[in-house]
Amino acid sequence: MINTPRVYLVPVGNDVLRSPSGNLGEIREWKILDQKLPVPFPLSDAALGNPGWIPINDTLTDQIGDIRQFARFRAYHDSGNFDPSQTITDTRLIGRSVWNTRWLLIIPGGTLHTDRNEGIQRFISGALKPDGTRDGNGVTDIKIFFQTYAYSGN
User: Fold this and answer.
1) What is the Cα–Cα distance from 24 to 12, expressed in whole angstroms?
2) C-alpha gyration radius of the chain
3) Does the residue 57 lie in any domain?
4) pTM for the whole thing?
5) How many domains does the chain have?
6) What are 73's strand-pairing partners?
7) Which candidate among 8, 30, 36, 128 keeps its CA 20 to 30 Å from the CA of 134?
8) Which three-class secondary structure state does DSSP give residue 103?
């Protein structure tokens, strides 16, 4: 098995947040569609003074409204001892709620082994023994670690 597999973690459910209104405990849920939109920066004095500068034309290299793809990131084995220093930091989900109704973890077989089918079989059922059976030492648990932040207020 490859020691540095790459995976995708995609929020596919609804984002959930508590309402900052006076109704304590009220929960809001909404579906987010991650689209390519022009960003309001980088702005410069030259851009602001240029009447021909149009954010949609000058800050977006793709088609407006296209669905953004998620990047893959490295998964780590922990041998039973979790070490936060081995984790990666990714800002892709800023503005999203960790409290999502459904997450999808995609583990491409090709990132587990040079033979993708063998990689999936080893991941699920363990290594192949000389008698053609599997040793049963496949993955039994997956831990997902989120380091999050929040702003209080109403």
Assistant:
1) 27
2) 22
3) yes
4) 0.70
5) 1
6) 7
7) 8
8) strand
Q: What is the 3-state secondary structure (H, E, C) of 18-59?
A: ECCCCCCCCEEEECCCCECCCCCCCCCHHHHCCCCCCHHHHC
Strand partners, 35: 67
The number of beta carbons lying within 10 Å of the beta carbon of residue 12 is: 10
Q: Is the pLDDT of residue 118 over 90?
A: yes
Tokens of 78: 């922990």
| 42, part of any domain | yes
Residue 104 lies in a domain: yes
Neighbours of 5 (CB within 10 A): 20
Can you tell me which residue has the tokens 């984790």? Answer: 87
Domain containing 31 equals 6-125
Q: What are phi and psi of 84, to 5 degrees?
A: -60, -25
Torsion of CA 28, 32, 36, 38, to 10 degrees: -10
Q: What is the pLDDT of residues 7-57, one digit of tens each?
A: 998 888 898 887 766 667 788 888 887 777 766 656 666 666 777 766 666
Round to whole Å and give the CA distance between 43 and 2. Answer: 44
Please indicate, yes or no, if residue 95 is contained in any of the structural domains: yes
Exposure on the CB side of residue 71, measured as CA atoms within 13 A: 8
